[in-house]
Design brief:
This protein is of the alpha/beta class. It has a single domain, classed as Vaccinia Virus protein VP39 (Rossmann fold), CATH 3.40.50. It is built from 10 helices and 13 strands. The strands form 3 sheets. A 7-stranded mixed β-sheet has the order 8-7-6-9-10-13-12, with helices on both faces. Strands 2-3-4-11 form a 4-stranded antiparallel β-sheet. Strands 1-5 form a two-stranded antiparallel ribbon. α2 runs parallel beside α5. The longest helix has 17 residues. The chain is globular, with a radius of gyration of 19 Å. The termini are far apart.
Length: 333
Amino acid sequence: MTSMSMKISTEEYIHGGTQKDDYKPSEAESCDCPLCGGKDYRKLHTERGVLGIVRCDGCGIIYVNPRLKEPEKVYWGDAETYFEEARLIFLGKLPHHRDPNYDYDLRIVRKYKPEGRFLDVGTNMGFFLRRARGKKWELFGVEPSPALSEFARKYFALNVKTAYLENAGFEDDYFDIVTMTDVFEHIGDPESMLYHVRRIIKPDGIVLIKVPNGNYSLMKLRLSRLLGKSGQYDIFDSYEHLVHYSVKTLTLMLEKHGFKVIERYLPPPVQIPVWHHLVGHYYQYPSPAILDFKHVMLRRIFHLIGRLESLIPAGYSPYFPPSIAVVAREKTR
């Protein structure tokens, strides 16, 4: 590693996507509450110029308003840059930094459905779905980004359609398992998404949804304001994360649209690598914990506190775990 590469800052990290630091009002749109449809809200924060973080006065869910128009197209970026960002993973020379997290979620799936047709929604480059290979599942994926879905097919030989779920052409009552890992928070119209999930899943099928914990982001916002740093970095990733669920609001969303939550769990924290601080690239590969020891330990401590919070009687939504997850089944038709 040269001395020049050591000086590259976080801001110079090369992204494959098309996200920008600031957006104009013309690039954003207003919306109603995605859970209850309410129009009244309280403003919590603003990111990237005009993207607002609000909390619904009616149901309490946190969402982005105004939000970016067509935020999914952030991932319709340059294919060559995406390839370089994950080249050694595609070539099988290094693991992805989220592989332990993917394996944990797959163990949860296997507990309920050890075999059957398995659909991953928002497959991205196929990193999660590739970890499900070699088991008794028949694997399918759907991903709207042309570049990302092509990587999943080309490098991992996955059966991934380039489409949105609603126009992917899947039959009714076809899948035993539907997963959305770090995807559901990107969906601006969760009602439509859950309608189509309910249509294609078998009556005894399961849905696994993992999302960032909205309460955790809210806690970070409050702490950053106490420290006078709330304007220095993204807290809610509002250019791509449109809805910020707590355990309570995620459960309400699923129940409203025909599902019953059968398990809530706290996924292990994602240990984000920090190579990009040093070389401006290779964000996806695991880095030694010593390079980011403070944040690695904090994530583990927060996750442990979250597990203690989960012992509080039902109805409480924990604040400390960075991510939350549920398994749901369709209510009786």
